[in-house]
Structures are given as C-alpha cells and as structure tokens.
Design goal:
CTDL_fold; 4-stranded antiparallel sheet; 6 strands; mainly beta; Mannose-Binding Protein A, Chain A; single chain; C-type_lectin-like/link_sf; two-stranded antiparallel ribbon; 126 residues; disordered N terminus
C-alpha cells in the first residue's frame, strides 16, 4: 500500500511521469528510506483546488494492444473496480493510449504526448 503524491504539480507527458516514478522506485534513490531506517515525516503542500476542466495523467494505458487497458502494474484496468468512461471515450485509435482522469470524475484516454499534471503512487518502504 502506498500513497498518492499530489505535489508538486507539473505538466508533463505520460512517459515523463512514468519514467520519474521508476526513478523513485529505485532502491538507491535518496527519496526512499533504506531497510532498517525510519523515514523522516514529510508535510505535503496543501493542494490547490483544481480548475473546473482539469485533467491529469494517471497510471493506465493501452499502448501494447489497442483497447486492452492495463495499469502501470500490468493488471487489467477492470481489476481496479473503477471504469467510468467520459462520454465519447475511450477513443479507439493508435494516438489516444494514455489514461487520464478529469474533474468530472471520469476516465478518458489521451494522447501520451499531451502535457498534463500526473499523479503517481509511491510505495511504502518495506
């Protein structure tokens, strides 16, 4: 079980967010405590209210097979228990492959190169 890191919010493409998450999961990263140590408590900034039309990248895609949506853990999206597509989505083409969430509480598929804030999960230390 981990937690969702909401800050700092930056606008990046899906691949950048995925790559930076991979870096955070690297056990040599100073951002993660090592075995046998106690992490220092960190205060997260107070979230800024999202604009009415905000969309963020989240961890699912259909990059490998069109229409087969997988989480960043390679699990089928349907296993998350949340499949509430925005009207008109998903878009069944080769350009809209990266998952997003909007303030209307819907998921959608965006182009992966669209610069949006992203939300990633940082796992707890063992």
């Amino acid at each position: 079980m981990g937690y969702v890191d909401y800050g700092p919010v930056r606008s990046e493409g899906y691949a950048t967010g995925r790559d930076e998450t991979t870096i955070l999961e690297d056990s040599t990263s100073p951002a993660l405590p090592t075995a046998g140590t106690t992490p220092e408590p960190t205060l997260l900034p107070t979230p800024t209210p999202a604009p009415a039309n905000a969309t963020v990248h989240i961890g699912f895609h259909d990059i490998f097979i069109e229409g087969e949506y997988l989480t960043v853990r390679s699990e089928p999206l349907i296993m998350t228990g949340f499949i509430r597509w925005k009207v008109g989505y998903p878009i069944g083409d080769e350009e809209h492959n990266c998952g997003a969430f909007d303030t209307g509480k819907f998921i959608l598929d965006n182009r992966c190169d669209v610069r949006l804030p992203y939300i990633c999960e940082i796992p707890e230390a063992p």
